[in-house]
Design brief:
With about 190 residues, the protein is mainly α. It is built from eight helices and no strands.
């Protein structure tokens, strides 16, 4: 079943069509969310929210863009909203801990590697995720969509609603900053 027919049937609240749509695009949405969030469990939650949002707002899809582009945009926006809400929660949690009398309630972060994991590869992943987390939001998204999702600049520009040249600038600046951040990570760890 092609995308136009799927969307038409989903707008008519055909659950079987929606199930086909989810099966067709769940991998794409999950990958985008995971590349931005760097946490598989969070990405699973956000990707479910993406599909719920699609089901509830399918009538708003005008067909001006490709379905994949529309899915990328919703996935990116929901992932960013999740990150923003998590940052607020962390901030308030840190304030609670700071003003709390019970400092023992903090649990230590478990940084042990699972048995059999390649330590060097794991360290490289940590360095990359650290550096991606330090990038400005737009640079992180542009680099993630280009490098992890293999999207072309014009597709990224449509998803991010910016010009193609701005995508190039974001990616180039982001790569330079990533390089510095990764070097900094290894120098300090």
């Amino acid at each position: 079943m092609d995308d136009k027919l799927l969307i038409k049937k989903i707008s008519e609240k055909d659950e079987k069509a929606f199930q086909l749509f989810v099966e067709k695009y769940q991998h794409l949405v999950l990958n985008v969310c995971n590349n931005i969030l760097n946490n598989y469990d969070d990405a699973m939650d956000v990707s479910q929210e993406v599909f719920i949002k699609i089901y509830n707002t399918i009538d708003q899809f005008r067909g001006d863009s490709n379905v994949k582009t529309w899915l990328y945009r919703i996935s990116v926006n929901n992932s960013l909203n999740y990150l923003r809400s998590r940052k607020k929660q962390k901030w308030f949690t840190n304030l609670d801990v700071l003003f709390s009398d019970n400092k023992d309630s903090l649990e230590p972060i478990d940084s042990e590697l699972k048995p059999g994991e390649n330590i060097e590869q794991e360290e490289n992943k940590k360095a990359l995720y650290y550096a991606l987390g330090k990038l400005p939001e737009k640079q992180n998204i542009a680099i993630s969509l280009h490098n992890f999702e293999d999207l072309a600049y014009n597709e990224i520009s449509e998803i991010m609603n910016i010009s193609v040249s701005e995508v190039g600038v974001l990616i180039n600046r982001g790569k330079k900053k990533l390089h510095k951040l990764i070097l900094n990570y290894y120098e300090n760890n």
